[in-house]
Amino acid sequence: MKKNLNGKIALIVGVLVLCIWGIFGASSGVTGKDLTEGLTRRIHLGLDLRGGAHLILQVKVEEAVTAETNNTAALIQQDLKKANLSYTQVIVPDPAKPQVIRVEGTAPASSNAVRTLLDSTRYSNEYNLDSVGDNAWTLTMKQPVLTALETKTVQQAIEALGDRVNALGVSEPVIQEYGLGANQILVELPGVENESDIEKIIQGTNRLEIHAVVGGPYKDEQDAVASVGVGGSLPAEDELKSFTPVIGGSADTQSVYVLQRVSVVAGNDFRSADPGTDMNTGRRNVQFVLTNEAGDRFYEYTSKNVGRSMAVVMNDQVREVANIQSAIRDRGEIVGSFTQDEVTALSKLLSTGALPASLSQLEKRFVGASLGADSIHKGVTAAIVGVLVVMVFMLIYYRGSGINADLALIMNLVILLGIMGLSSALTGGANALTLTLPGIAGVILTIGMGVDSNVLIFERIREEVRAGKLPSAAVDQGFAHAWVTIVDTHVTTIVSAAILFMFGTGPVKGFAVTLTIGLLANLFTAVFVSRVIFDAHLNKLKPGQPLSI
Amino acid sequence: MELFRGVHVDWLGKKWYFLAFSMIFSVAGIISMGMHWAHPIGGMRSPVPLGVDFRGGTQVQVKFQQAPDINRIRQAVAAAGIKDSTIQPIQNINEAGGNEVLISLPEQQDETSLDAGRKQIVDALQANYSNPFTVSKTEVVGPTVGRQLETKALLATLYSMLGMLVYLWFRFQLIYGVAAVVACFHDTLITVGAFALTNQEISLTVIAAILTLVGYSMNDTIVVFDRIRENLRLSRREALPDVVNRSINQTLSRTVLTSGLTFLTVLSLYVFGGQVLRGFSFALVVGILIGTYSSIAVAAPMLVAWQEWRGKRGKATALPAAKRTRV
């Protein structure tokens, strides 16, 4: 009885065509060069094969929290002063708990007034107030506010990193949150050749701020304290900052300013900034635009302080001191004795947004492109040798049926690569399955383990033939019996691959991907395709002719 | 061509030899792990040499234009005041004179200066050793990540075994699952022991290889178990040891063939895959041999031993043939 296999053969041919399209795309020609080009466009290579850098960064969110609470602490001091309430100090006492502000030394008599002030909506929206003893208070940032601030900090860091990476011209970078709520960022930069480029991206956590100037310049700190200080020390709401006129200027030109601790405008308030030249003086400047909210704040401040000075602070040093000539809302310029490079650097820094907190590296892996190419070469050599050894062996051991197994094996590989290529064609490359060096190892292992299905089936068919069954019955029984075992063995391997995928990182994930796809494809090729080939062969077999196995 | 046709080997009769063989290798591995534990490297206690993934630290792989002189490199690095560095040439089996050297520094506790080690090495070589070079690979792993990865690797191995146990429980019977997991554990132990014995580092990719090995060893065991289950249903009166022996013999040809072929592909990976995959392919080369052995010599005898133990206690003497769930 002959089976009609046309439908099944059409399906197999369809899958093959789809997968070959997946691997090479609509190749412009059939020369080796065209095909390689299509292949490299489709198969998405991991960092270990194409070269590049992989970083895991820790965002020091506590810095952003400290900056926020310090700013609030300074606000509290201003408010207490305005309300004529006495205090000794307002500080963030514990660096390990930057969300706690402590107000100390308020007068017991005015305790109620202090409570009313600290519990006003100006603070109570964001802080919980507790009184500690008679004359001290703590304000603790509310958990949701704290979490929101941390999330925002990480997001800002991701945005800032993204801008910098784009400026570097890296294609297909990955910058995303990493881990669960640990404030970590994963950065992947394919094709980066120079490690110092990577450093540039991470560094420059420069916080740029504008502060009101209380007094200065003074020639040194003692001088400053003597002029502004009360009783040998500065008021707590003020701080000392040294002045370096040019970015990276020498120390002997330093002088000291006393500034208000609360900043008027901070790094994230800048919407854009461009290098320019001052119309009147011809000096280089940076023209900036503030965000709406910061613009309002800046207008309120500048309109009240015309004639006074403000200082541009970067990296904890005063870069420029300017006289406020008129109220400024959201447009302004920073003029200073800058070089062209510095103006460009500063404006880029401002428009990309300074990092809201510094970053530390938890992990860094860098692979040069030549090592990657070398790895591809070695991996492919190993794969070809592996495939050839297996195919030759199957031919020798199973003779005619060996051809069947070899066809199935080749199709297995075509489907595996095809699915990887299709994933990149369908998702536009963004979520493509990635081939890594361990991934190539996964392909090689798929060959070894995939051929197991054929061996299981063929051995079973041989047993049935030995038991005296006719070829068609033997093939039937062989497939039926082996099928159960094949499912069991595939499930267990895919279970370990799935767990690897969940726990693994980068290269190891690539291994889990190829192994899983390879084994799933194997279910199709070793069972379905191989069966169709057998049936087609049986159709042609004359009665009484034995099966070549 | 056919091998192993009509084999009649009494596998269970050799169980004491198997036990002795397994014990020798397991104990050798355990002793070697104990030695590593007793001699911590750079203050890190670990039963096996750990790669930079888990241990943390800095590794810079440098490719020189001319053949490098390890002693000169050592001097160059020492002259820059870098302490505790290890410098080793990278051996490639099939290409001599790769001119590549691996320079490692121990873990840096301070994560803010994590990248400093790499810079120091590169600067030192530039300043003190006049042999042009390019950095072909850098790996810097801080203590936090190292520890996270360590936990992840352990969990992954455990979960994977647990997953298999549950699957086998569902598909066969609990005792089949237990026997298979014991066999897998045996394979993992001996493979890890081989790393300790040969003083090779365990990295993340090696863990991937070990997990694959868990799946692979399970494959082999399942093929034998499937046959035992089938034979038990066909001949209920035959004694269990005979059924098990027959099942092993019937599947022997497949077991040897598949293992042989997988072994050949992995061997090709070991020989041609280059230094990056050396540890990975080593684990698979060892693991496939042991995994094949264990499905015959550990898992199946365990089934019988359990049955005999139950028989002595007067419980049901027949191993459940298990429900046959059709798939």
Summarize the structure.
By secondary structure, chain A is an alpha+beta fold. In chain A, 53% of the residues lie in helices and 21% in strands.
Task: Explain what you see.
The complex is a heterodimer of chains A (549) and B (327). Chain A is α+β, with helices and mostly antiparallel strands and 549 residues long. Among the domains of chain A are: 219 residues, Multidrug efflux transporter AcrB transmembrane fold (Up-down Bundle); 153 residues, 2-Layer Sandwich (Gyrase A, domain 2). Helix content of chain A is 53%, strand content 21%. In chain A, helix 12 crosses helix 13, helix 13 runs antiparallel to helix 14 and helix 13 runs parallel beside helix 15. Chain A starts with 5 loop residues before the first helix and ends in a 9-residue tail after the last helix. Chain B is an alpha+beta fold and 327 residues long. Chain B folds into 2 domains: 196 residues, Multidrug efflux transporter AcrB transmembrane fold; 85 residues, Alpha-Beta Plaits, CATH 3.30.70. Helix content of chain B is 62%, strand content 8%. Chain B contains 9 helices and 4 strands; from the N terminus they run ααβαββαβααααα. The chains are: A alpha+beta (549), B alpha+beta (327).
